[in-house]
Design a protein that fits this description.
- This protein is 39% helix and 15% strand.
- The protein has helices at 12-21, 35-38, 41-51, 68-77, 91-100, 123-134, and strands at residues 6-8, 27-30, 58-63, 81-83, 104-106, 112-114.
- It has a six-stranded parallel sheet.
- Helix 5 (91-100) links the parallel strand 4 and strand 5 (104-106).
- The protein starts with 5 loop residues before the first strand and ends in a 13-residue tail after the last helix.
- Residues 137-142 have low confidence and may be disordered.
Length: 147
């Protein structure tokens, strides 16, 4: 399953901006690194649900860093896409739990544009967001189109 372009969102305003700028491929709303452990899945899933726009394809992915307990809690909360570092000793067990509930576990964060580094009130930053979401396939290792 291929993922749409990802943006790291830190709250509702960023999620709404990403969905407003999303093209036909949609957008992957990615939590901040480790957010599953410090903000919790319920908060992030709530942000994704509140930002949803009719007709705009999107997915939410919560990053649980190397915390398998947070990843399992995210799955119990209804997350369908969870990031857990592949080197985590419990990765295989959490992957099995994810598969058992129809979810997907990613071993690393996908390349993303971090909206925390942009001022979404500025036209040029909104243009960067639109350009990122228009990419056909983000390049591995890229974290943003900003140098």
């Amino acid at each position: 399953m291929s993922l749409p372009p990802a943006v790291t969102v830190h709250g509702l305003a960023g999620a709404r901006a990403a969905l407003a700028a999303a093209g036909p491929r949609g957008v992957l709303l990615l939590s901040a690194p480790g957010a599953g452990a410090f903000a919790g899945a319920a908060w992030f899933l709530g942000v994704v649900a509140a930002a949803a726009r009719p007709g705009v394809p999107h997915q939410g992915a919560i990053d649980c860093a190397d915390a398998p307990g947070a990843a399992l809690a995210a799955l119990r909360a209804g997350a369908r896409l969870v990031v857990l570092q592949g080197g985590c000793p419990s990765f295989a067990a959490v992957a099995a739990a994810a598969a058992g509930c129809g979810a997907r576990l990613l071993p690393e964060r996908p390349p993303s544009l971090d909206l925390g580094r942009l001022d979404l009130q500025r036209r040029d930053d909104l243009a960067r967001l639109s350009a990122w979401l228009a990419l056909e396939a983000p390049q591995p290792g890229a974290t943003s189109p900003m140098a």
